[in-house]
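Here is one chain, start to finish.
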Amino acid sequence: MQFDDDAQLDSGQVRDERGSGPSRGGLPGGFGLPGGRGGLVGLILALIAAVVGVPLALTDGSGSSSNSLSSSGNGDATGTVSTGALAAKCRTGADANINDDCRVVAVVNSVQNYWTGFFAGSNQKYPPAQTVIFSGATRTGCGTATSAVGPFYCPSDRTVYLDLGFWQELRTKFGARGGPFAQAYVLAHEYGHHVQNLTGALRNSQSSQQGANSGAVRVELQADCYAGLWAHYATTTKDANGRALIKDLTKQDISDGLDAAAAVGDDRIQAQYQGRVTPETWTHGSAAQRQKWFLTGYQTGNFQSCDTFSGAV
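Its structure:
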């Protein structure tokens, strides 16, 4: 995945809270659903915690947290930077091509450029969602959460939350190959939840259910499809200045995205951590389902094709 070196980034869509600790006003107590969407792995991490006997790292509202299934929460290898420093160093696509922090900004910009255009095509306004990069723990409109929850979207404050240590976990804990587009898939999936929040799909999904055909699974698979939909148009999506931020997506990029989707399938994670697959407890979908729906969005480029709520998934 290559960004246009001369494209301008809008770092205002990303806020860096690493090193600041829980600082956002939110609901007291732990993070839970359906107040927030656990995105790729949130509920599965809770399952792993129960299976292996490690408490899920949710804070009690005071900033202290239990043992974490996640990384140490140190963010990415480039180190902690303030939001002002993020704006200073993430100015162009050239910065995104060499820096993980700036890549987050660039992908968020590209995804939101796509959805802005899509909504405008139906004479509707797309309200942007912010992404917050944090380390360790943060307070959200859905409660206080830690890195162990994994990337997630909170509909109450219309914000995506991400600890960049998850990129390493995607490889070491879940066995994905990783790579820039695997990271982009994660972000595009979470913004898929934002779109669902705007359309009402998130609210009407009965997402607290479990099972292979549950509302929870259908919500997650639709977010995967929306991620694929963005990927279909990523190189032709233009910003307000008429410039496409992403200039090249390769077959290898798409393969890395599919690999990441499969790595966080319910069946893969259950087999790894509990030694058996129990579809009746699925909340995100199998590896094959996640790949199928990402590909549906990517190959068709058709929003209507992402209807996971009709028929079998």
